[in-house]
């Protein structure tokens, strides 16, 4: 199964109710995404770093995820200053850098890192099962909750099935190349994976019905919304209001 590295711990955010973290994440990330000036964006980045510090997560693992995300922002830094237009910040021979493009790239970078850090600190400190149960208790559509939980539960099973089929093909001297035989073989592999996944889904559904499944999500954990969770939400609301206020100053 997919490892949930950040969900193991006893920090302040690990002890918070998943419902409080989900609600706080939704409003915080939506607010940061709508900011358009540097002072509140820098303040949001500081808030996100503070939350990450309180979550007490391994910095090496967090850094790897930030590198993946900032690979996308690096592409924006390359393209936006050259293609955005507007006032020229730097003009030399064939190189024309747009001032507005640089500003937009910087804002997107701050927003991206602030949102990713907040999501890592707030959501990844809970397991997928806890988040699914929290969404259900918040009255999100049950189909979304079940889709999240079962996608997480069975995606590794599908991957194992595909690996088994690929291993069987290699044992029969299959060697990938750029030819029609390779394309046809991979098409057969994907098709068989889909068929076996469908058959597995049918068996799982029948097994659940035999165990009395009635469409309701039953969690093995009991979550109590405490005063500490309320205090956490109030602090996050204060941070959001401060960001909104700073954006108008």
Task: Detail the poorly predicted runs.
Answer: none
Number of domains: 2
Major sheet, described briefly?
A: 2 strands, antiparallel
Rg, Å, rounded: 24 Å
**Strand residues, percent:** under 5%
Query: What share of the residues lie within helices?
Result: over 70%
SSE succession? HHHEEHHHHH
Strand order of the largest sheet: 1-2
Number of helices: 8
Q: Compute the separation of the termini in Å.
A: 48 Å
Going by helix content, strand content and strand pairing, the class is: mainly alpha
Taking all residues together, what is the mean pLDDT? 88
Shape: flat
Tell me the number of strands.
2
Structural account:
This protein is mainly alpha-helical and 249 residues long. The chain folds into two domains: 5-126 and 223-248, no CATH class; 141-210, no CATH class. The chain is 71% helix and 4% strand. It has eight helices and two strands, in the order αααββααααα. The chain has helices at residues 18-34, 38-55, 59-83, 99-122, 128-137, 142-171, 180-210, 227-248; strands at 88-92, 95-98. The N and C termini lie far apart (48 Å). The model has no long low-confidence stretch (mean pLDDT 88).
């Amino acid at each position: 199964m997919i490892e949930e590295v950040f969900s193991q711990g006893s920090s302040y955010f690990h002890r918070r109710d998943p419902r409080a973290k989900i609600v706080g994440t939704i409003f915080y990330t939506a607010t940061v995404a709508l900011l358009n000036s540097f002072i509140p964006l820098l303040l949001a980045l500081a808030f996100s770093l503070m939350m990450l510090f309180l979550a007490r997560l391994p910095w090496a693992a967090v850094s790897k995820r930030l590198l993946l995300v900032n690979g996308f922002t690096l592409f924006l830094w390359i393209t936006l200053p050259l293609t955005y237009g507007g006032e020229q910040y730097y003009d030399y021979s064939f190189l024309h850098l747009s001032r507005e493009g640089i500003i937009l790239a910087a804002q997107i970078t701050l927003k991206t890192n602030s949102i990713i850090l907040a999501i890592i600190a707030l959501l990844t400190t809970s397991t997928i099962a806890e988040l699914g149960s929290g969404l259900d208790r918040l009255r999100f559509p049950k189909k979304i909750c079940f889709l999240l939980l079962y996608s997480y539960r069975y995606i590794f099973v599908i991957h194992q099935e595909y690996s088994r089929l690929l291993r069987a093909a290699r044992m029969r001297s299959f060697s990938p190349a750029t030819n029609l035989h390779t394309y046809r073989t991979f098409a057969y592999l994907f098709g068989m994976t889909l068929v076996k996944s469908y058959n597995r889904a049918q068996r799982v559904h029948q097994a659940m019905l035999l165990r009395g499944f009635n469409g309701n999500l039953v969690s093995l954990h009991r979550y109590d919304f405490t005063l500490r969770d309320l205090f956490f939400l109030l602090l996050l609301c204060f941070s959001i209001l401060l960001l909104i206020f700073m954006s108008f100053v």
